[in-house]
Predict the structure.
Amino acid sequence: MASIVIPSGLLLGTLLLIPSLFGDFTAYQIGLFLIYGIVAQGIGFLWGKTGILPLGQTIFFGSTAYASAHILINIETLGWQLVLMLLSVLIAGAIAYVLATMVFRGKTDSGPYFSLITLALVLIAEQLASTSPNITGGFNGLSGYEPIAQLDPFGNLYYLIVGVTVVSTMLLLALNRLPAGLIARAVSDNEPRLQLLGFATHKIKGLVFAMSAMLAATAGVLFASHQGIVTPTSAGFALSAQFIIWTAVGGRFHVLGPLLGSVVLAWLTAELRDDFIYWEISIAAIFILVVLKSPGGLAEIISIYFKKLVKAQVSEEPSYCAAPNVKSQQPAATLQFDQCHLQVGVVQILKGVTFTTPAQGVVCIIGPNGAGKTSLLNVITGNLLASKGTILLAEKHIHCRPPYAALSSGIGRKLQVPSVFFSMTVGENLTVATLAQRAKWYHYFSAKPLLWRSAYISSLLAHEALPLTHNLAKQVSELPQGHRQFLEFAMTAAAQPRLLLLDEPCAGLSTAETHLMTDLIRQYQTQTKGLVLLIEHDMSIVEALSDKVLVLHQGQVLAFASYVEVKANKDVAAVYAGGTK
Amino acid sequence: MTPVFLLNLMWQLSLLAVVTLGLAIIFGQLRIMNMAHGEFVMIGAYAPIITSTLGLPNWMQLPVCIASVALVALILERAIIRHLYGRLFDSLLATWGISILLREMVELAFGRGFQSVPLPISGTVSWIGIDYPAYRSVIIGVIILLFIGLTIWYKRSLVATRIKAMVNNPELAQAVGINTVSLSRRCFVFGCISAGLAGLIIAPTAQISPLMGLDYLIRSFFVVVVGGLGSLEGLAIGVGLIAGSQTLLGALFNQTYGYIFVLVLSILFLWLRPNGIYRNS
């Protein structure tokens, strides 16, 4: 709590002092910069957490500014004015949500293209604003209306703006501390992994984009009252560009950064533009420097010095609590492939794969490089779509659904190269995995689920030899490859899926670690009585673990039998020893 | 479809093609989202003004254009761009900063107001039964020849193969002895020069101002997006769609509709076909 209340309190105190210290005109100016700062805060959260860079926030800022100008012109009663303004903010959020979910659906890498779409949209908005004089007043804009509740822009309106600024700051600071903020960060860190943990990432991006749009829209409402005039520039590209520069220079990873950037840079611009001809050039140079050398901006630099001054408190061991059960524990089920084909470009990867696994046990998949082993797992999770044939899990079709739906149908997957959240600590990684399939929507807005610990994860961490147990506070980027293997295994198994897909879990492990990993896999299988599908090259591991072995060769099933039978199979021997098969 | 309309369409197509070429190289090949592309067009357009300010004869416009744009591009590549290869998002932001930088510098040097330069070739020539400005006619011809030459060169030359190798796999390219540092630099400077030359061509037919770049940036960006990265065929298709639809709708309704249509088309492509119409390989 202190981390939210103290900065917000300091901010509130400072802003409240400004009118009496510097006079009403300065407060009027600062009021405008704070309005810009609210937009920048929204951009900062979106860009800093999820990695989406919106180039057209003035679409939302400008359109609600126009809307509230119309409301102030046409509506008499304050109550209705407020209701309609709130409605316009909500509409902005809804539009943003629909736009982002539509664009991001089925993709994990359209970040830059989404930015260009927002750029094109803001150009359209600006064009429409300046060419439809009936609605927007054309180049002259809309003016001649009273500010909201007759608040004087040079007087009391300032306090309303300060109030909204502090609320937006508290909201974002709180989100940072909640599971919702953690999931938002996970999106930009490793989207494919988050999808495999069952999160529909396009919806998460949509929600964060909607939130940033609603902050921009709220600022637009204030802007109309503050300026007393709304012109096409407030819906234009140039202002959008300013927002981005302020956010970047202020620091997009911190809640107060964009606010600081907006107020400081906009104030300096107002002061210096006319007297110092190199001002705009200096801003551009600073912006380029920030992009190249210091992506955290001013806020990062300040917080480094701040941390040197204030010694970090030694954080005590958090007290974990029992996690609720996963939403639906499904019974073990057979996996059935029937004449499954997979074609990528002109390459036929799977050519009529047919097999049926038992409902329980460990099935090892072996086969030479290029046999289609990893592609087989990709088809099961929906990362690749089978071009022909059917795949059934518990008699249900699973071959045409997106990867984020895999876990809820009971399929967990560990990738070949360990794929975890690299910018987070080991503990945070485990938290994200524990939230998967357990948290309901409201849990993301409560701090308690951050301390959830499922019985399975506790039992894993109880292994003294497990390299994670003493590294919970460590950044994943500092972990060696082998430790990441264990982390990803733990994350994949956290939701207790009935079908666990493991792609070479023992690659890069020492002999002792390999023993531990095979023990864990066997334990998982006996505990859950489910099915484990395991790709492995090391025959001693295959021998130790497998109940059955599936041999793939050139996209087809060569053999599917027990280890002993496969070992005696002449075709398999021929493939491995370079025979003629 | 009057003959004048057809010739105007040809003129618009060839202008947009030459404006976009530089971006197609820098964004399409080097994967630098060059938001400062329009500013290089703008600097090229100032070349006639620089030439006359220096008191040089008119034929010096071309060398002055190439020299000034190349100098700016070289400095920027050394100082900024070379840190941005492989960082798509950062390249967008940093080049955006560069675009502001260049605009403000030109404004300091030449002022904010509109300027114009006279046509180097005046008069008209007769084409398919109508009189058409000689300057435009000559330029259309030159650009068509240029693109034919470029297509042949791109298909056959060793440098083009090296560029393709570098784009596909920079590490492997280095391993087989391609100096990717210098190759990227030359690529970038070449792309900027071609933007500058486009500016020089446009100069007599447009109002020259520090802010003129944005429009060219946007249209050429969307050509590259619609056409697809990394091929001359894609470039041709993109130019045809963007300039064609804008000119057609502009003639049928008004400029605003043409502009908005282009933007909507681009949004649809960015959303549904982010790889463009023409996919290389």
